[in-house]
Design goal:
282 residues, alpha+beta, Fumarylacetoacetate hydrolase, domain 2, 2 domains, eleven-stranded mixed beta sheet, five-stranded mixed beta sheet, 7 helices, 18 strands, 17% helix
Length: 282
């Protein structure tokens, strides 16, 4: 089942039909048996085979966190971008260490919805999207579903000094989520593909693909570390890292269209803007 949040409310998709849900989004993430509850939504709540309203990011009051250096390709890219700053070996040690890299990514108001704009910093010269399987985690630390995440990153800022990571990663619309939450207690198979496509002026400028089999760390282990000394009363979202990195000669430009697709979940599309005022998000 898939859980959607739109301007018309919260809906679950079952067998190609959509059903309205009376609960607030936060309450759903705290449900003891979310799959069972969604399966019990009565047929009288059906709104047909078309999702009402305009898609919003499938998030309530939750924070978004992220894990880094969980794919070998990400390790190599971050080592290369940080060599001049003397920080390249940091990422090699993180990749092989037991403790994962975890960092804060976004508050809900900074998250871009499907079909809206993600941003590149006006003071960055080298920016890329990072396509990531994103875990939806209950307040009890249980993975209850998955969505697609775009961890927008300023590689030149982070590469200048690893201590600049918050500026490279955390800013308005540096995160996108959607289009839905795939509600399941089962881990997606290792064969599930993650695909990235970046279009510029109607042509594909870059594309890449990986599978979840290349993810080095178990998702539940990442969650367990995140919950070790912290708590999340409304649950949280955790991006699991990227295995697709464009070449060093590539940087995003205003007007680019970024599409991230993950098997069984769907596709997340966003356009790119640079700088400028940021409207409030719903």
């Amino acid at each position: 089942m898939k859980l959607y949040r739109t301007t018309s409310g919260v809906f679950v998709e079952r067998d190609g039909n959509f059903f309205s849900i009376p609960d607030a989004f936060d309450a759903l993430l705290a449900h003891a048996d979310l799959s069972g509850y969604l399966a019990s939504i009565p047929a009288s709540n059906s709104v047909g085979d078309t999702l009402p309203g305009t898609l919003l990011a499938p998030i309530g009051s939750q924070e978004v966190w992220a894990a880094g250096v969980t794919y070998y390709r990400s390790r190599s890219a971050r080592m290369a971008e940080s060599q001049d700053a003397g920080g390249g070996s940091f990422y090699d040690r993180v990749y092989s260490a037991e403790r994962p890299e975890l960092f804060f990514k976004s508050t809900p108001n900074r998250v871009a919805a499907p079909g809206t704009a993600v941003r590149i910093r006006s003071d960055a010269k080298w920016s890329v999207p990072e396509p990531e399987l994103t875990l939806v985690v209950s307040p009890a630390g249980k993975i209850i579903g998955y969505t697609i995440g775009n961890d927008m990153s300023s590689r030149d800022i982070e590469g200048e000094n690893p201590l600049y990571l918050p500026q490279a990663k955390v800013y308005d619309r540096s995160c996108a989520l959607g289009p839905c939450v795939l509600v399941t207690g089962e881990m997606l198979p290792g064969t599930a593909a993650i695909r990235l496509s970046i279009e510029r002026a109607g042509a594909v400028e870059f594309s890449g693909e990986t599978t979840l089999a290349a993810l080095k760390r178990a998702p539940q282990m990442l969650v367990d570390y995140l919950f070790r000394e912290d708590h999340f009363p409304s649950g949280t979202y955790l991006m699991t890292g990227t295995g697709i990195v464009p070449p060093d000669t590539f940087t995003l430009a205003a007007g680019d269209k970024v599409t991230i697709a993950i098997d069984e979940i769907g596709a997340l599309e966003n356009v790119v803007v640079q700088g400028g005022p940021i409207p409030l998000l719903s």
